[in-house]
Design goal:
By secondary structure, the protein is an alpha/beta fold. It is built from eleven helices and twelve strands. Strands 2-1-3-4-5-11 form a six-stranded parallel beta sheet, with helices on both faces. It has a six-stranded mixed beta sheet with strand order 7-6-8-9-10-12, sandwiched between helices. It starts with a helix and ends in a 9-residue tail after the last helix. Helix 2 (59-74) links the parallel strand 1 (44-48) and strand 2 (77-81).
């Protein structure tokens, strides 16, 4: 009887060890198996978009994906709100701030004033904002050097245009979008000073119809490559290009913020300029959990910080010799040999 009990104990111990090993392996592979968060704290993080959609295939979606990754990795409670008009912005931000969220993100330069106002009214709240340089003690601001990434896709466009006419479609004429345009223009000029540069600010980030119309005008004028920095409006640029390519016309679009070839296809997407909004949202949220929230500071993200760049899939349509030239200019920018204007 005693021998039988000993054998049972050994069996139970072996099963226990096996289950422990399996559990450890699951945690190592997924990280989210235990929901263990930085600093041991699972945050509640809210995000308020600009007046565009969280599913804009671009900027807002990128930010939301950063929060979704926090949820997947650490079990954070994340939520977004989409203001439909200016009067909705303050109530949306306040819904998170007054609702006890640990951090409230705003995803656009256009929300600067609202974030500043609400942060000062609620000094114990923590807020974050993208594309801003505001310095408020309880706000973490992130500013990207869009001009550096745009310069690289400008080099690609300048070397690959067949018509020597290259276009830019922007949303509102605000500092971040002006940096996109300036960098793109200077990159083109560096490799192809004879190319004609045409820009059009639609004044909207949410109007695909306006993006389509702007693209149609440019393509009709002989432009063969358009870079857009216009959020949901840019979807219209892609739609116009897809219709023309389907009819046999060879035109290209350069995507923005995310690798937009994954949404719109390689047949129209020459490359995309990546802006790592998701990384900024993810990392600063983690810093808060670790007690290192950079309130009152502006985090700059450019080529040196790996905050901007070109899509990994660029080699599908961009020849190796052109990509080699891009790397040469990237090195010069990081080393400070090239200074790029912001407008």
């Amino acid at each position: 009887m005693k021998k039988r009990i000993n054998l049972m104990l050994v069996f139970v111990l072996m099963v226990s060890m096996a289950l422990t090993a399996c559990g450890a392996k699951k945690t190592e592979e997924g990280g989210a198996a235990t929901g263990e968060a930085p600093g041991g704290k699972k945050l509640k993080v809210g995000m308020v978009t600009d007046l565009g959609s969280v599913n804009d295939k671009s900027f807002n979606q990128n930010a939301w994906e950063g929060l979704q990754k926090l949820k997947a990795d650490f079990g954070y409670d994340v939520k977004y709100l989409e203001p439909k008009q200016d009067s909705d912005v303050d109530p949306s931000l306040n819904q998170f701030v007054k609702g006890g969220y640990d951090l409230t993100w705003a995803t656009a330069f256009t929300l600067d004033d609202a974030v500043t106002r609400i942060a000062k009214e609620n000094p114990n709240a923590k807020l974050g904002i993208i594309d801003s340089s505001i310095e408020v003690p309880n706000v973490a601001a992130v500013s990207f050097k869009e001009q550096e990434g745009a310069y690289l896709v400008g080099v690609i466009a300048g070397l690959m245009t067949k018509t020597n006419k290259i276009g830019f479609v922007g949303g509102m004429e605000i500092p971040p979008i002006q940096r996109f345009s300036a960098g793109f223009r200077e990159g083109i000029k560096a490799v192809n000073p004879d190319a004609k540069y045409i820009e059009n600010y639609t004044g909207q980030f949410t109007r695909a119809d306006m993006g389509k119309s702007a693209a149609a005008t440019m393509y009709n004028d002989g432009v063969d490559i358009i870079f857009h920095a216009s959020g949901l409006t840019g979807n219209g640029v892609f739609n116009e290009a897809k219709e023309r390519v389907a009819k046999g016309q060879k035109v290209w679009v350069i995507g923005v913020d995310k690798d937009q070839s994954l949404t719109f296809g390689d047949e129209v997407t020459l490359t995309s300029m990546i802006k790592k909004v998701d990384v900024a949202v993810y990392e600063i949220s983690k810093q808060l959990a670790e007690g290192k929230f950079p309130g009152g500071k502006v985090t700059q993200m450019g080529l040196k910080e790996d905050g901007v760049g070109i899509a990994d899939t660029s080699s599908k349509n961009v020849p190796a010799d052109v990509l080699k030239k891009v790397e040469e200019y990237k090195t010069k920018i990081i080393n400070g040999e090239i200074k790029i204007p912001e407008k």
